[in-house]
Write a structure and sequence with these properties.
There is one protein chain. This protein is of the alpha/beta class. It has two domains: 236 residues, Rossmann fold (3-Layer(aba) Sandwich); 143 residues, 3-Layer(aba) Sandwich (Rossmann fold), CATH 3.40.50. The strands form three sheets. A seven-stranded mixed sheet has the order 10-9-11-12-13-14-15, with helices on both faces. Strand 12, helix 10 and strand 13 form a beta-alpha-beta unit. Helix 1 crosses helix 11, helix 2 runs parallel beside helix 3 and helix 12 crosses helix 13. The longest helix has 20 residues. It is globular and about 65 Å long. The two termini are 38 Å apart.
């Protein structure tokens, strides 16, 4: 398998788009070629597209995780003897470049775009939907992610993930729950309304929301306000820096509140080891510290040595495995965007991911406006410094309509 680097058309000249080893501002010095593959049939051309560089939350480890997955697939026979040939189009966290990547996938006649961690799908899906090209493995964060006929999200987005907090609160014995919500345009009201509906549906006594401005640095007054509500548990919808500030105030005060925090808004545990002991975190993917993902980590180290091991790199590996399973289950005779889209829609059932994600099936959701959300599960952990202990295993996220 050769990893081809494709620059968004807005970034470099088209002459540099399709050749192995071609470097550009978005992919220079990244070109790699794998060893021999046991798959010798006609290659299946796909594009990887997410932010592996750039100033806005780059995730370079997703490239290594997905690359390792594709190498492992090819080295063990590919898809019925056909190797997967993957190009990379780096969005750099830029909406215009993301749109250009979608246009390039159409131009290249890629049969699918695999997009672990991609949060700019709203810029890509209109182009891909018009061309009938599947977008596989992104986060579900917008209404289009949840409804587009070519969208195959790997994990629930922020609003859906929030719904897991209620189930976890009930499992750990919370008697009254409060929420701490970021003050941010287009987010605060939607999140607050979502929590109100969630806790009412679960019959969980709700102490109501407290709000945190992004300019706050000392969260001691915020903590005191939540404790005054009589809540024994609090779940948060904050930015990473805000979560760290609130944890600091909680630790310094010796508070007995149980904190239930989405893993997507928490800093790496190595940076929180002095303040995080006793909190609960929940995530749509198992953490690298979980023994159940040891084999996936071993494969990443084997097939893409040097890749940073994180939740995102093991998720990217798992997404590659699930995508391949969908094609293997279909036993296609030709690989086009149309046949691959049909295979993913009709044949992908209970695909394993090395325990990183729950078994993945593309059975449409029955929740209104969430027809394309296929995995509504989270796993919860207690934290002790840099160590974690599994609390719940996979918890089904309540099927409550989220205000996407």
């Amino acid at each position: 398998m050769k990893l081809r680097f494709v620059a968004p058309v807005a970034a470099v000249a088209a002459a540099c788009l399709v050749f192995t080893g071609c470097s550009s501002s978005s992919s220079s010095s990244n070109s790699t070629t794998t060893g021999s593959s046991s798959a010798t049939g006609t290659p299946i051309h796909v594009m990887m597209s997410t932010a592996v560089s750039g100033a806005s939350s780059p995730m370079p480890e997703t490239q290594g995780g997905l690359q390792a997955s594709i190498k492992e697939i090819n080295d063990t026979g590919g898809i019925d003897g056909h190797p997967i040939d993957m190009s990379l189009c780096d969005t750099q966290g830029n909406q215009n470049l993301a749109e250009s990547c979608a246009e390039q996938a159409v131009s290249n006649k890629d049969v699918a775009v695999i997009a672990p961690g991609n949060v700019l799908t709203a810029a890509m899906l209109p182009t891909l939907q018009k061309a009938g090209i599947a977008l596989f493995g992104a986060d579900s964060n917008t209404a289009l992610d949840a409804t587009s006929s070519v969208s195959f999200p790997a994990v629930p987005g922020a609003y859906d993930l929030n719904n897991a907090s209620g189930t976890i609160a009930k499992q750990i014995g919370c008697k009254k729950i409060a929420t701490l919500i970021i003050e941010a345009p287009f987010i605060t009201t939607v999140v607050a309304n979502g929590y109100k509906v969630l806790f009412q549906a679960l019959g969980l006594p709700y102490a109501g929301p407290t709000y945190a401005a992004t300019t706050v640095t000392d969260y001691s007054d915020t903590l005191a306000a939540i404790e005054a509500t009589g809540a024994d548990c609090v779940t948060t919808a904050l930015a990473i820096a805000q979560t760290t500030g609130f944890l600091t105030a909680w630790k310094q005060a010796g508070s007995t509140l149980k904190l239930i925090i989405p893993g997507t808004t928490i800093a790496p545990l190595t940076s929180l080891a002095s303040i995080d002991t006793g909190i609960y975190i929940y995530t749509p993917t198992r953490l690298p510290s979980d023994p159940l993902v040891a084999s996936t980590i071993a494969d990443i180290n084997k097939y893409s040595p040097g890749t940073v091991i994180s939740s995102r790199s093991i998720e990217a590996y798992a997404i590659g495995q699930i995508f391949a399973e969908g094609l293997k289950q279909a036993h296609l005779t030709t690989y086009t965007a149309q046949t691959v889209l049909g295979a993913l829609n009709n044949d992908l059932r209970n695909a394993p991911s090395g325990n990183v994600l729950p078994p993945y099936s593309t059975v449409p959701s029955t929740v209104a406006n969430q027809e394309r959300i296929f995995t509504k599960y989270a796993v919860a952990y207690t934290v002790n410094g840099t160590k974690t202990t599994t609390v719940t295993g996979w918890v089904k996220i309540p099927g409550i309509t989220s205000p996407l």
